[in-house]
Amino acid sequence: MTKPNAEVGFAFSTKDRVHLTLRSLASVNTDGGFDLIWVDGSDTPEGRALPESIRLHNCLLAEAHYDFKGGPDNAIRLGLRRPLHLGYRYCGLIENAVEFRPGWYAKLMQLFELGSRDGLRVGAATVRTIESRVPIPTAQYVMMWNVGAGMVLFTREAARIVLATYGHPTAQKLHTFYADKVGVDLKDRWELWMDAPDRGLGCDWAYAMQLHRYGLYSLGSVPSRAFDMDFDLETAFRTSYARRPAKISQAHNQRWSKLTGAPSQMGIVPTVKRNAMFVSDSVRSAVLWAQKRNKWVRRIAHPVRSARSLRRKVAADRTSRL
């Protein structure tokens, strides 16, 4: 097992698109004090050969995983499990299409300190701050309802919670949660709904929500210091990156007061309750991923659904023989 060179380990995920990977790495390498874990799913010879040819001066490439298969969710889960296993205090994710501005790392780590000063238990931080994902701004940082997987750093506790709660949310589920817990109406966030009454979302949309359930908050920097290179944010999501601190309105102050006004809202979840939640979420997640891999687990976990499926298959076979 590789011994960590630093307290922070980022899983850097890549699949071909070598020109983007090189730009991203060059921008990552403007800062230092952290390690990288390479998670590579490249199909081309150029993509596969890249980890052997790169030279990083400010950070260390701690280990590399080649020919990774299984899609982005499996890559993310590996990208969190490895730094946890290696003993890093903070476990992060960086995608190879994200470019950083110098000073990004210091700003990222400062978010944990700023939130702690305000009495928040910070579980996640990002310098890829998107305006439509900000329910509550402050003078020095913003609270996020969606931190995504493009660029995010978790504490060890938060990384374990993300793995234990990994699953696909819906737009309506996120809207209901934040309306009840924070008093924020997400109905006007176009990227959440995309003109549909409801829609299924990628697993990374749920990270901030799941951490909030455990009393952990997700913060973003202002201005944003990380940007996507492979698509235009305004065209794709009808929003923009955070460029300057927002003007704090009375509504923002009321939301902040609601959030921090009582111990239950401030995220002080009793340890016994957190442990019980974690065990329950871990079991549910294990069953979910086992179902995806094994049909027999699906039949045990959902006997009624499996029985119906079997009856439909038998009926279809009979019909085909007639």
List keywords for this structure.
322 residues; alpha/beta; Rossmann fold; nine-stranded mixed β-sheet; two-stranded antiparallel sheet; 13 helices
Show the helix and strand layout.
Layout: E1 8-14, H1 18-28, E2 35-40, H2 45-53, E3 60-65, H3 71-86, E4 90-95, E5 98-100, H4 104-117, E6 122-126, E7 136-137, E8 142-143, E9 151-155, H5 156-164, H6 171-181, H7 190-193, H8 207-213, E10 217-220, E11 226-228, H9 233-237, H10 250-260, H11 271-293, H12 295-301, H13 303-321
Parallel strand pairs: 1-2, 1-4, 2-3, 6-10
Antiparallel strand pairs: 4-9, 5-11, 6-9, 7-8, 8-10
Describe this structure in words.
With 322 residues, the chain is α/β, with parallel strands linked by helices. The chain folds into three domains: 1-96, 3-Layer(aba) Sandwich (Rossmann fold), CATH 3.40.50; 100-269, no CATH class; 277-321, no CATH class. The protein is built from 13 helices and eleven strands. A nine-stranded mixed sheet has the order 3-2-1-4-9-6-10-8-7, sandwiched between helices. A two-stranded antiparallel sheet has the order 5-11. Helix 1 (18-28) links the parallel strand 1 and strand 2. Helix 11 packs across helix 12 (295-301) and helix 12 crosses helix 13.
